[in-house]
Amino acid sequence: MNNRVRILVFCLFFAFIWLFTQLFHGFVYHNLHLHLSAPWELAVMWLPKIAIALLLAVPVLFIRRNWWTVVVVVLLAVWIVANILYFRANKILLTYSAIAMAGNLGGVGGSVWMFVNWKSVIFLLLAAVYGTIVLWLAPVNRAKPTKHTIWASVLLIGIAYGLSVVAGKCNYRLHLRAGDEQIVSQKTATIQPFIGALNQSHEDPYQYVAQHSIMAYFPLAFLDGFVFGPKQEAEGSLTMSKTEWSLMRVLDEPRAKDPVPTGNLILICVESLESWPLDIQDRQGAWVTPCLHALATDSATIYAPYMKSQVRHGVSSDGHMILNTGLLPLHNGAACRLLPENTYPNYAHLFAGSTLVNAVAPDFWDHAAAARNYGYAKLVKPSLEQMKVDVFEKVMDLSWSDEVMFQHAAEEWQLMEEPRCMMALTLSSHSPFKLVTAEDHLDLPLTLPKAMRKYFRCLHYVDSCIGAFLTELEQADALRNTTVVITGDHTVFKEMVWLEFRHYMERHEMAEPPEKNYVPLIILTPDRRKQFIGEECWQADVYPTVLSLMGCESYRWKGVGINLTDSAARQARPMEEKAAYKLSNKLLRSNYFAQ
After folding, report:
1. 445: domain range?
2. pLDDT band at 184 (very low <50, low <70, confident <90, very high)
């Protein structure tokens, strides 16, 4: 009887671990592979998850008390929920650096809770069910392990390893069929149940989890922080391949003299701005973003609606860095937090006057250091004295409304020496979209998803602030010889949420939703140049485009992107996106631009 209890707990523990890893795969990768039409893919996805569940369940055969299995199941549920929320918010899996930055959320923790849904809660409910069953029916294994138990354990461990080997061979075969020239040798293609090939897995967690399991990724995420992270941060020299050095000879001219901009620049970076709302109308035909829609469809603007968000763990701070430096973010962590003393290339320092206007206190995402690093001579920010009068809603303890922020920006702009450069960072459309309390006049359907409704409301407010800002400067004749760039820092609805929105938009015949959501780029030039860029482009393209429009192409660092106004460049990028991320990571980690 007691052996039956032991076997029952073993089977339950194994089944729940396997079920958790399988459900996570289905929710994140939208594919459970429950059919046999692709046996190689089926083996690659199922076998590693069976192997990890077997390995974790083997100790049940030796340990008398079973409470520890409940702890493991609960921890796994929490780990999975955390990764699902983070993936829904950022489209990347958790890493040690991301966990370490959790304290930096300040007053915007609701940005994460906004993405909670039934797929998140189900794991916690299943963990509660498992705990109830085990602690009620079988808290203790009274029978002592026998020789048969030992042999069974050895056999199960051998089976687990064998399954991982078979999965590795199948994975290797899939790569061969796909013609992947980068596949490692057949020997190293073996999928290990826990940490696999350490020198590769930490570079692509998404792919690693797809081929292994979210449980196998757990130790790897922390190894990345304690092993790989410190090694990278301590790295002072720059090691690059021949291809990368060849690229650097084109992208960087260290001896080039700083050019003088031919005009003024205003860069408006809108929090969480996506392209698709610019084409949305309410039930009365009013545009959600009338100002931005008018600019996007104007006959005298440059408009790129398909700009790919390229931020990673730093999210908004990554977006600001990309726009100002032409570099892509660190693979792991946020540069503004990890590398605040670095020297960064930028165009802001080329101007006689340069100011960063920020609605949030400077200690959030280290904006004070970012303003200095990105070449801005002055930082305009909220102060305690101003907050007593201009308080909009206390977010992260100190913040301005976008209306107040743009008022300060307009005042500052007219005092700056020419040629002048200003970057204005909005805040009111930050998730979870609670910063706008004023009533709007949008007539939105009652069936609209709550997050979408709140997002539209915030964008409508921000759009009115941008319109008022540009109108004020134009009436004061303060936009002469000025290029205005309006874009977003990142998308806010990643793949899992975006699919839900697309299904709603298709059912209710709203504006035809694109396959993916993008960040828009709107540019108003002094000569009112008209250009529509219909191809998918990068956030990193903004930097070289700005250099070109300002007559500063001769600046030493050209950026990893391309000049979007150059049609030939759009057809022949010098590097792929993965290579651009890798090169940027090396340049940042080595503090290349300080040399």
Report:
1. 265-353+391-594
2. very low
